[in-house]
Design brief:
Blueprint (H helix, E strand, L loop, with lengths): L4 H5 L8 H17 L5 E10 L2 E7 L22 H13 L6 E5 L2 E10 L2 E10 L7
Antiparallel strand pairs: 1-2, 1-5, 3-4, 4-5
Amino acid sequence: MLEYRKEIESLASRKFDRSYEIKAAKILKIISRANAEFPYVTIIHRINLNSKQVLISFGDYVETKNDESFNTFDFIYASTREERKFIHSVLEQKKELPAYFQVEDDFYKLIYPVKVDGYIFFLLLTDYQQFGKVG
């Protein structure tokens, strides 16, 4: 992932709209295709939405159609209790912690905090191996 550090850092935005969605999709598609260990890459941000802290995510595809307006509700990330606990603890401590790793039924998930100029967001790397990972 280090070879894509500059591209990943460019996603450290607090303004989410259709242009951000398109930019994120392009960058994440390149990273996803270049990364055999975790071929599915998503970016996660915590935002305030209707006075509640929620997680939103963007993947390597564009969700909003050309004729639709951008709606933040479409990007809410459905997280597990453990994921939320990890993400909120990183954000409360305002420092990078070791990544969160989870394996469940041959589904591998790594949540990696990224800190850029004091702002922290997360890369979610996932893979599914029908017969488990070897090595």
